[in-house]
Amino acid sequence: MNGPLPGHDQYELLVARGFGDSFGGLWVERGDLDEVADLLRLDLGSRRDQVLGEAVAAMIDPPDMLNENPAVWIGPCGPGWSMVIGAYEPYNSAPRLNVVKGRRLLVRWFWEVDGLYDLDFYRDGELVEELPAFPSGELDPGPELEPYCFGLPREGVEEGGWERLAHAFLTIAGRMSGRFIDEDWFRIPGRTYDQPISEADA
CB-based contacts of 200: which residues, under 8 Å, 6+ apart? Predict the structure, then answer.
């Protein structure tokens, strides 16, 4: 768990790729992408096979961002893990997802509304730890996530705390799932789906 640190700032890379205003990343301990899409109750008929870089262009387009069911992209991560990416929070409350075995992590920010959100860590459908998103950037993990925080700055700073903490959250997700965010990440083949507008449509 005390693995390597990424060689670059993952938050800054996401900003450069269009996620400067908002981002939602869900890391799911399931390797079957079709199963993940089904568990999330996405609109399976809307599937478009795309690399992440192609999907991002549509996600951050202003008309698409105003849709009631914005698109999300699903692709492979480390062994046995998948990632679900959206310009806002990916669909994280599907009942089927909440009863499956395994771990999942949710990293998200929406600067104009709430800033950086707490890092949510789930196991077997239960929320087991929330890592606080202190504006100062202070990193204060509990026992579940502490092993994944080795080598990350802990003290708060006067400026840029949230941005530094966003990178730390992404590092924790990368260590747990087996893959950090890099340029190759945007060339990974996956598939894009529309989200259901409501549970009734799921």
Answer: none
